[in-house]
Amino acid sequence: MAGVMVVEDDPALRGMLREALEKRKYVVITAGDGREAIAKFRPSVVDLVITDLLMPEEDGLMVIMKVKEIKPSTRIIAISGGGKAGPGSYLLMASKLGADLVFSKPFLPSELVQKVKEMLDKH
Amino acid sequence: MSVKKQTRNNDSLTSEKAEIRNCIRQYGKLAGGIAHDLNTIITTIYGYSEMALESLDESSEAGQNIRNIISAADRARELTGRLMDLSLPAGNEKKTVRVSDIIKETVNLIRPSIPHATEVAENITSPEILVSADPLQLFRAFTNLAVNALQAMETTGGRLTITLEKVTAGDRKKLKAGEYALIRFADTGKGMDKKTADKMFDPFFTSRRNSNGTGLGLSLVYDIISDLGGDINVSSGVNEGTVIDILIPAEKGKFVALP
Predict the structure, then answer these.
(1) In chain A, which residues have their Cβ closer than 8 Å to the Cβ of B53?
(2) Which residues form the domain of B137?
(3) Which residues touch B104 (CB under 8 Å, ≥6 apart)?
(4) Cβ neighbours around B170 below 10 Å, total
(5) Across the interface, do B44 and A87 touch by the CB < 8 Å criterion?
(6) C-alpha closest to that of B137 among B99, B173, B189, B164
(7) pLDDT tens for residues A45-77?
(8) Alpha-carbon distance B125 to B144, whole Å?
(9) How many C-beta atoms lie closer than 10 Å to residue B195's C-beta?
């Protein structure tokens, strides 16, 4: 089964996303910040990364750059609660750095999980 | 009242307004931070509610209760949107940007919400003109002005023309002599009287009493443009439309392309 890494500093949201993805039978690895994410990233296991952008200890933009460097085929979804998208916003920067999709919090997790499925089915 | 006394009163009014603006800015920062954290919490509420609904009959009492939780989360989402509107976009560094790029982004954003019988035109005579600004803040200011113009035409229809040209301004009260980007938002909407026009950039002033507006949108526009060393001029009349001129000091050098 495909592997998904969830990088999110809020433990409740991280736990909820893990549960929602495990229900769909994905192998889920979680990390609470960018540094932990890079330490736990296994190219042979992870096919898709969902990463928050504003986090202590290395932010999501760094995660996107490193992951793309280690395994360029990894699909990436960036999530952020830092406001609306617009020129210069974090979400747009994430797109520019290689995120395939961006979600602005709050979002419906069912929509995120659906996108994960679509992206991994195409993979 | 003597001229001297009136000047002193005007000065104290200006400093009071500056103090209010500063206060709002601080509260705006706080509001933005709270909204950011609340958005994370609301996403978690949505997620567990959706999972709960998957495992029970939606028409049952428990199912209905979960639906009510989701409706409450929807209302909280609306509130965080309004809190976000109180805050300036997260402080990215100022960059040298092309104003025409920001205008294009603004038009792209508002295009889906342009009402029937209303058109938006761009009149860009100096596409190359550069300014030093946070692109997100400038985009926020332009979007705010464009949406306001569309709202002024929502019952009658009309035309919003966004003009960009390079102008030279001499020394005056708020501006240093030099080259400026002039961005003009001219609409053919319902316009406003002088009293309203004089107050439109004041914090908490709104002419739409029944809307959900905070009366802070245009005040933030004023702050964003002032921070850039620029100025805003308004000319309007009832049923004569509104023209808002923004002047921002022009920059030279290499610009940063927008994503």
Answers:
(1) none
(2) 95-251
(3) B122
(4) 8
(5) no
(6) B99
(7) 999 999 998 887 778 889 999 999 999 999 999
(8) 22
(9) 8
Mean pLDDT of chain B: 82
- Measured CA to CA, the distance from residue B239 to residue B242 in angstroms comes to 9
Numbered residues of chain B with Cβ closer than 8 Å to any chain A Cβ: 32, 35-37, 39-44, 46-48, 50-51, 54, 73, 77, 80, 84, 87, 89-90, 92, 95, 97, 101-102, 105, 109, 134-136, 139-140, 143, 258-259
d(CA A50, CA B57): 30
Maximum alpha-carbon separation in chain A: 37
- Do B7 and B78 share a structural domain? yes
CATH number, position B118? 3.30.565.10
Tell me the pLDDT tens digit for each residue of B114-142: 888 999 999 999 999 999 998 888 888 89
Closest CA to B192 of B179, B210, B205, B174: B205
pLDDT of residue B166: 93
Identity of the amino acid at B193: D
Amino acid identity of residue A93, one-letter, is M
ipTM of the complex: 0.90
Q: Is there a single domain that holds both residue B118 and residue B208?
A: yes
Residue with tokens 């540094």: A35
